[in-house]
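Quick one before lunch.
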Amino acid sequence: MTTPPTATDVERTVYDVVIVGSGFGGGTMAYALSRAGLNVLLVERGGWPHRDETDWNGRAILLDGRYRGETPIAVDQKADGKPVQAFPNEAVGGNSIFFGGASLRLREADFARWPIAYRDLERHYTAAEQLLEVHGQAGTDPVEPPRSSPYPFAPPPLTAPAQRIFSAAEKLGWHPFPIPVAINHAGPREPKCINCFTCDGFPCRISAKNDITQTALAKADPAHLSILARTVAGRLAVRDGRVVALEAIDRDSERRFTLRGKLFVIAAGALATPALMLRSGFDRMDASDAIGRYLMRHCNAMLGFLFPFRTNPAAVNHKQICISDFYESVRKTDGTALGVIQDMCMPPPDVVRALGPRGFRWAAYLGAAHIQTLLCIAEDEPQADNRVALEPSGAADRWSQPLTTVHHRYTDGDVRRRDQLVAHARRVLRAAGGLAGKVRLIDSFSHAVGTARFGLDPTASVLDRHCRVWSLPNVFAVDGSFMPTSGGVNPSLTITANALRVAEHVAANFAALTAGVDPRA
Ligand SMILES: Cc1cc2nc3c(=O)[nH]c(=O)nc-3n(C[C@H](O)[C@H](O)[C@H](O)COP(=O)(O)OP(=O)(O)OC[C@H]3O[C@@H](n4cnc5c(N)ncnc54)[C@H](O)[C@@H]3O)c2cc1C
Ligand code: SF4
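Model of the iron/sulfur cluster complex:
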């Protein structure tokens, strides 16, 4: 890992590349570009994960928001149109710190509305699986896309709750398979995963989750990478059609300072990336009016079923089974995937009581040990009206930066696809011995994508096919924002693979890109 630079060091340097955001997109770019010999600065508003006992405390992490950022986002997603405040988590490693490890590829048909094809990303998917040390079993997913090499590591043996779902799905004639996971069960490093109960939504106290700090940042070239944590990217300064500097704020000293680079990469996540672009006035140069628009997040639900026995007495992480048999079932009618069903752990009981469906909270708390849940991930459609914008009232955070707003509504098709998956999940849980169930709709933006879509037409997309901002030749965006459709699987492996693809292009064309020569011409 690199030594933290001082503010004076960084102000003196003109970096080859300044990256904003250290999640799957930004952390992966930092890895690849530092190893290509470029001098990289990675700027992240969150701090380093604590990795102490409290990181596995359900109340501290999921309810009290130990990693919650201090800047609210006003989210309008309910029929009544009343916005509620959300405070996304912040940490070095981005949401990889909190993710559940599921690392799946999109399918060939998911690329129908993309400017690149699955075959263009295939070798980068392979490299991403190597980078994140994914444990999976090729040939078991019934709609798996073609792959040029096996997974780096075999999946761990099924736990008892996962075996229950696996057997039930098989009984129905379906083809359940082990979720490919970026969790260290058999990889080269220590420690190995101990299958604890607090994985999805939590940092891993023992660093056995293959998050971005343990993979991309640990494998980056420390001689070419500096990481500035607890530093907020405020605005990118544009001069003569190029970005020349990043105006940043040190959260501890409150000092504002300027970071200079030849090339800039925005990877602040699909909510914060368009906000940074808008704060920097990119919309005045953009011909598409797409910055912030087409926000997607999957249409997700959790189905919990009550069982006449304790479903997970050993209290193990059992996010292990995926069911994709219906993935292509609506492709002809809807032009989308249906999505997937995944095994999922119940949150700890006090969290269940706080977050369970209204009217069922105490019942869920008391019965938590007898409940087993499945997560349904349905593809949602891109709609121009679903968008991230800047607060029109001018309300600002404590650094005088305009706050961000989010407006989102699902289409009838999104809801129908989710309900179809829930119906399939209900059959599995019944076949597994469950008695009765309750659905909880997921209203978080954990799978947010799409707000700076890439494309072939500058009047309809923010980024070109290499994820370069059409109107600013020395700026790229590589987080989930680039995705023009969400597909029907969890997004992180695709974000990582795409960042590797873009990094290869940037490294190969760095001189031309920074000399102002347009390699597209
Ligand atoms: C609980 C949970 C479980 C999940 N499980 C899975 C899973 O199993 N599989 C899967 O594929 N996906 C999962 N996801 C989704 C996955 O984590 C995201 O899709 C992914 O992290 C997005 O990567 P990204 O690079 O777009 O952005 P992020 O990972 O969100 O990274 C963006 C980074 O930018 C930083 N940033 C934002 N604004 C600024 C600023 N102004 N200045 C400096 N830094 C800034 C943020 O703090 C953050 O660190 C899960 C998400 C959550 C929340
Ligand atoms: S299940 Fe494994 S990877 Fe996840 S938090 Fe527990 S020990 Fe870490």
